[in-house]
Hints:
This protein is α/β, with parallel strands linked by helices. The chain has helices at 37-55, 90-95, 132-139, 175-185, 201-214, 216-228, 234-245, 247-255, 267-276, 289-293, 295-305, and strands spanning 3-9, 14-20, 23-30, 65-70, 84-85, 98-101, 109-112, 116-118, 127-129, 147-151, 156-161, 167-173, 260-263, 283-285. It has a six-stranded mixed sheet with strand order 3-2-1-4-7-6, with helices on both faces. Strands 12-11-10-13-14 form a five-stranded mixed sheet, sandwiched between helices. The longest helix is centred in the first third of the chain and has 19 residues, at 37-55. The mean pLDDT is 94.
Amino acid sequence: MAIYITVDGGTTNTRAYLVRDGKICDSFKLNTGARNGRGALTEGLRVGIRELLLRNSLSESEIERIIASGMITSENGLCDLPHITLPAGLSELNSAMHHTVFEDISSIGWSFVRGVKSVGETIEKSDIIRGEETELMGILDSSASDALYILPGSHSKHMSIDKSGRITEFKTMMSGELFAAVIENTILKNSTGFDHATIEREYLLRGYGYCAEHGINEALFKTRILRNVFFATAEQCYSFLLGVVLCDEVREIIKHPATTVVIGGQKQMREALAIMLESSGKSVTVPSDEKVSAAVALGAVRIYEAK
């Protein structure tokens, strides 16, 4: 079996994984991303890859390929590449890969997975992703084709998959960033915080229900009322607020025609969405933490090896 290094390049952080025989056996993280520019990425990856190989007693010649995806392919990343258009599955992503070598990093060849775009005549039908297409291919289950895949995170992606396992449409919702912005930059930071990240089911559903009835603007402030008037705990306020922020996502999922929903992505939001969809009539599948955490790395390998 081949040995790969996969690189998940984000806006603020970059993660690299050593994949041997289809399993992740080592990794490193850089507090550097596309926002820091090519120079910082080049130096960080050069040092990181060298140390990764030394730790595992490997030479550069033993690595089949470095496979990279995400914002590392953006205009501020290591290799600026245009998106490909829908539909996009393993075959299309493999055919569109860009292959090159960066001698200032190592002699190992690189293969970059391009992002995907949806282009329509209206803003409603237009969207872009970089990295989530690779994550999706790591959790895609052939038994759950013709389904809606949800990848919650800073930017949550709702991706429709056809029977051939290709992305046919998708949309982006900024739930994670909205949640963080509210907690960190508004008066609600005195009511809750990320250190109170235990989900309490009753309050999660109360937040969702209140937002569905009264709208997000009023519902957000009710988090403070819960804390100051009804003396709810920080954990209860956290759950209520999460229900408020995820309300629009849940409503979009419910009205989607797919009967099967698969939820990956960020753990807290994954668990919250699953709870909120229990009475939706959808068949909801939540992959294991292990499968989700390995999705980007193994998805990159699946794309590279696809023919």
